[in-house]
Amino acid sequence: MCSAIEIITVPINVIILQHVKEQRHAKNTARLVSLCVPTTNVISTNDNDAINTLRDQCDATNSAVIYPSKESIAIESGFKTPSKGVNTIIFIDGSWKQAFGMMQEYNWLQTLPAFHFSQAPTTNYDIRHTGVRKALSTLEAVAYTLSFVFKANVAPLHNAQRLMQQHWQGPQSHRRGSEKNPIP
Q1: What's the CA gap between 137 and 28, in Å, rounded?
Q2: Which of 56, 67, 125, 143 has the most CB atoms less than 10 A away?
Q3: What does the DSSP 8-state code read for residue 109?
């Protein structure tokens, strides 16, 4: 896979706040993002110093978080996008339950403008334990944001995810659409 990685330059700081349990997964797409976008900063929830530094650097004028909530705005709305004055976009990497817990634990994230996807593409990430049809991998969320907001060519990200899935040798029951994980 390493020889297939292509570098993408982006005009924004990409931060992935990663639940500590996600770090150990072989299907960790945040790692692929950091390989294709080397300026990406992946911060583990067990790195309190890095989280505190991030908190101190981020405010509602320079940062945004991609997380669906009651207050979040559709990134596609055109009304307001993260590109206006924002130099840092934070992505939450974890299961839905883990992501919710992270948003509660790091409540300063709730002070940042939040964005969700109303027209996200269908996921091509089929080695996950979710039956949520509209769920994207972290890589796909980063790719969609960079493509939609900044018109970046994100084909290298999608290619890396496709290659990783082709080589993944985990249990068939982890794949979307399997009997244990039917897509609703």
Answers
A1: 9
A2: 143
A3: G
- Pairwise CA distance, residues 29 & 26, whole Å: 9
Per-residue pLDDT of the chain (184 residues; tens, 9 = 90+): 667 789 999 999 999 999 999 887 666 888 989 999 999 999 999 999 999 999 999 999 999 999 999 999 999 986 567 777 899 999 999 988 999 999 999 999 999 999 999 988 877 666 565 555 667 889 899 999 999 999 999 999 988 888 886 766 555 555 555 444 444 4
Residue 160 near residue 142 (C-beta atoms within 8 A):
no
Are the beta carbons of 116 and 91 closer than 8 angstroms?
Answer: no
Nearest to 32 by CA among 58, 11, 2: 2
Contacts of residue 64, defined as CB under 8 A and 6 or more positions apart, other chains included, come to 82, 86, 88, 89, 90, 112, 113, 114, 115
Contacts (Cβ under 8 Å, ≥6 apart) of 159 = 4, 6
Helices (H) and strands (E) in the chain, counts: 5, 6
Name which of 85, 48, 81 is nearest 151 in CA terms: 81
Gap between the Cα atoms of 33 and 139, Å rounded: 6
- Give the pair of three-digit tokens for residue 93: 């990497």
Q: 74, 85, 5, 73: which is closest to 40 by C-alpha?
A: 5
